[in-house]
Task: structure prediction
Amino acid sequence: MSRAAPETRLHGRVALITGGNRGIGLAIAHALAAEGCDLIITGRDQSLLKKAGRELARWGIRVLAETCDVRDSGSVEAMFTGAKKKFRRVDILINNAGTAHSNLKVDELPIEDWKRVIETNLTGMFLVTRAALPLMKRGGTIVNNLSIAATRTFPGSSAYNASKHGALGFTNTLREELRPKGIRVIALMPGATDTDIWNTLWPEAPRKKMMVPKTVATAVVNALVLPANSTVEELAILPSAGTL
Result:
């Protein structure tokens, strides 16, 4: 890693990434750090979070690594208290925290799994966004990581599909509400990406056919650095092999 140069495209910006301690979230964090962006990363695994924070700090940027359970409004508010104290604003919000459940038909899915997935993938996105908006100004951007499951249906993933379809509806509504305020909202819809989530969704998935998280991160940065009078509203990126 090398120190981010002052002329990098996002120098001086502040980005908050939920689930920023692993997978796509961590890849986006590194891509933003390389562009000079200061970071707030959150996660529930404190040891992974601290490790990620140390890695990101090597880019020469400011990093705040805060534990946060996006399902809990009190945890979200506590995290934002720390973020506001250190940075006073958020320019880029990446709602990336997410979870899945085992491949089970509707009549087999435990209610506990349904609630956990909906509360993390949908309610968590709402709670974090609501808390972030007072810290965001014109020119800011919100990226909601929805997955391609936001527009497609995969049998055995009812709670996951429902959470992502709902999150797309939330994202589309948010975009229209924030358009007059000059805050862009992007629906990120990556296809199969080689991350830990497949250990739950499909342990035997063909990982070699998948994208790597860095590919998704590159696409996100390219969307973020567009001129302020333009935006990518939906960013779907899939492996050339298709949806697997």
In short: The two ends are 33 Å apart (CA to CA). The chain has a mean pLDDT of 94. Residues 14-237 form a domain with the Rossmann fold fold (CATH 3.40.50.720). DSSP finds seven helices and seven strands in the chain.
